[in-house]
Amino acid sequence: MEPHTAVRLRERKANRLKNYIAMSRPLGVTHLLLLSKTELGPNMRIIRSPHGPTLYFRIKTYSLCKDIIKTQKNPRSPGSEFLMPPLLILNNFISGKKELPHETLLTSTFRNLFPEISVKKTQTSYIKRTLLLHRDPCKGYIDLRHYAIITKNVDICQPIRRISTNLGIKKPLPNLGFIKDISEYVLHNTGFMSCESDSEIDDDAIVEVKEETNMKNYSKEKVQKKAIKLVELGPRLRLELYKITEGASEGNVLFHKSITNTLNEETSFKEEH
């Protein structure tokens, strides 16, 4: 959820939910995420601060970040990715007249968790992460995945890229002392990755990116070909929405999975939200 989180909030054991709701407005907090565990399993609540509504989820399955790292051959340590909000991707979320009232509220809640990103104004270098929410159309389960977006230039081959990218950062340059000519490093596989190995990159992962470069007297758009790779950061969640209440963890029940509302109740719920 970073960077738009209350990192300066001091938690105490004596604090209750009403204390956090009271402090949400001075801190600029719009949503509260609460995790709890019962005999039936773990649960999660998303509260719209300060007056609700509240969405209740059952966590069917989950994997922590440390569990995801153990399964990766080359895990990525978090860095500057968390200085910018993630790109939210909603898949299989119904929109339009076929959408039920509780589905409309569910979609708007997830969208309001993160700031809007303008496709025309936002630079591609600003987007470092993506949060994917996939909804199962049959069972209604929501699968959450969190990825880091890694981009690499493909206009130049891998050996040249290793030299050019290591000049401005504190990384050692490759040892070229045992070769007689630079062509042996670029064209042949002499202990390094050759240019031919770049062909292993999937064509579907290569996109053209327009980047604005500000010059002294004018701005210029530079088109580059970049390979995009997603590296999972975790956690993984499978959620099931089972209840919605009108207030902050209280109030009238607007939706319940085990209870079917009448037509009048659904109409009034749609008018209120």
TrEMBL record:
Name recorded for this polypeptide: Brix domain-containing protein
GO cellular component: preribosome, large subunit precursor
Domain Brix, residue spans: 1-250
Pfam families listed in its UniProt record: Brix (PF04427)
Residues in the signal sequence: none
An example Gene Ontology molecular-function term: rRNA binding
Gene Ontology biological process terms in this record: ribosomal large subunit assembly; rRNA processing
Origin species: Pneumocystis wakefieldiae
InterPro entries per record: Brix, PPAN-like
